[in-house]
Amino acid sequence: MKKYHFDSEVPFQPSLSIDTTNYSPKSAARIIEQHYDLRLLRKTT
């Protein structure tokens, strides 16, 4: 029996679930950034 369920949602807190099958890591990061109203550090060239 598993002690922890890391793939479960927290029942008392709204959460974000992303099926990354069809998303690149960069796209998934942008979804997270927008959902949580974050500003990621962007590499400047």
Architecture overview:
With 45 residues, this protein is mostly helical. 24% of the residues lie in helices and 0% in strands. It has one helix at residues 25-35. The longest helix has 11 residues, at 25-35. It is extended, with a radius of gyration of 14 Å.
- H and E order: H
Report the radius of gyration as a whole number of Å: 14 Å
Number of H- or I-type helical stretches: 1
Residues in helix, %: 10-25%
Strand content: under 5%
Average pLDDT metric: 82
Residue runs with pLDDT of under 50 for 5 or more positions: none
Span between termini = 49 Å
Q: What structural category characterises the helix and strand content?
A: mainly alpha
Total count of strands: 0
Write the layout of secondary structure elements.
Elements: H1 25-35
